[in-house]
Amino acid sequence: MREIPEPLRSGPFTRAQALETGVSSRMLQGQRFVRVHPGVWKCRDSILTWDQALLAARLALPERAHPTAETRLRMLGLDTGVARPFRFVVEGDHHLALDGIFLHRTPHLPPLDGDGVTPAAAFIALCARARVADAIRVGDWLLHRDHMSLEELVGLALSAPWRDGAHEAVWVSHHLDGRSRSLPESELRAVVVFAGLPTPEPNGEMELDGVTVIADLWFGAWSTAVEYEGAQHQEDRAVYVADLDRYHLFRGHGIGYVQVTKERLRHARTLVGTIHRELLAHGYDGPPPDVGPGFALLWQRLSRQVGPRRERSRGRRTGLGAVS
């Protein structure tokens, strides 16, 4: 039995690519190969990575289909959200049903770059289905890494308000802040703000004993820091020791602090109460956190905040502002 050529062993390939290596259409029908999509195969014993499965999808689709939404954002290194189905967009009324692929159709393509739609356009597409908290996390991530700017995002959304996700993107743009450096930090900031507590400064800097110290969330008026403790804070000894030094400086300067883990972040109502008590201990005399309907918006879809599309087209106004 002839060996499978090396170029075909490590990923997906088309019939034409197989023929170039001497593998005929009849051989592709044998037990050593598996059809992934129409016109696309892989070796039976190979397991496709996410990147290879994406390549298989691209090989099966027309060249004018471009990665969008979660798929395009994951290509940037954003490891969150749903990895499948792969989402592409194509201009015109092109119908194609492929397993594990969702092909969006549009009368006019959004801006493109060398890999698909631009990150700002992909974010707008994501906003059509995303929850408020998830959109804030992703939007902050894109801003912090300079994949998009707020001006680009809002300008693109307003230039084509008919596009799915455009109204949602404009609404959530008011809650984005590129100074947050991680997804959990963004969610933590959103939890604080949507509970009605004062807006903290993300990654606020302070000088303590000649040392520059950065707090994930900094309430400067009340000398209170909120720190998100990810897994690396427990697993990396150097990070753990640096944390101890930072908290020692906080205590020495009368700075209050709240440590937040992923488990605490899951119980957001309890968490904002803990932060409120720490603020009170350092002179805060404002209103307590409100965990009512406004707080619950965080875990609702963005589309609920801007209303049905038919009402947006009539310029309806809501308590959240204009949706036209």
SSE layout and pairing:
Blueprint: E1 13-14, H1 15-20, H2 25-28, E2 33-37, E3 40-43, H3 50-60, E4 65-67, H4 69-75, E5 86-91, E6 101-106, H5 119-127, H6 132-144, H7 150-159, H8 166-173, H9 183-194, E7 201-208, E8 211-219, E9 224-228, H10 232-235, H11 237-252, E10 256-260, H12 262-266, H13 268-280, H14 293-296, H15 302-306, H16 309-312, E11 317-318, E12 321-322
Parallel strand pairs: 5-6, 9-10
Antiparallel strand pairs: 1-3, 2-3, 4-5, 7-8, 8-9, 11-12
Helix pairs in contact: 4-5, 5-6, 5-7, 6-9, 7-8
Structure description:
The chain has 324 residues and is an alpha+beta fold. It has 3 domains: 1-48, no CATH class; 61-178 and 313-324, no CATH class; 197-289, Endonuclease, Chain A (3-Layer(aba) Sandwich). Helix content is 40%, strand content 18%. It is built from 16 helices and 12 strands. It has helices at 15-20, 25-28, 50-60, 69-75, 119-127, 132-144, 150-159, 166-173, 183-194, 232-235, 237-252, 262-266, 268-280, 293-296, 302-306, 309-312; strands at 13-14, 33-37, 40-43, 65-67, 86-91, 101-106, 201-208, 211-219, 224-228, 256-260, 317-318, 321-322. A hairpin with a 2-residue loop joins strand 2 (33-37) and strand 3. Helix 5 packs antiparallel against helix 6. The longest helix has 16 residues, at 237-252. This is DUF559 domain-containing protein.
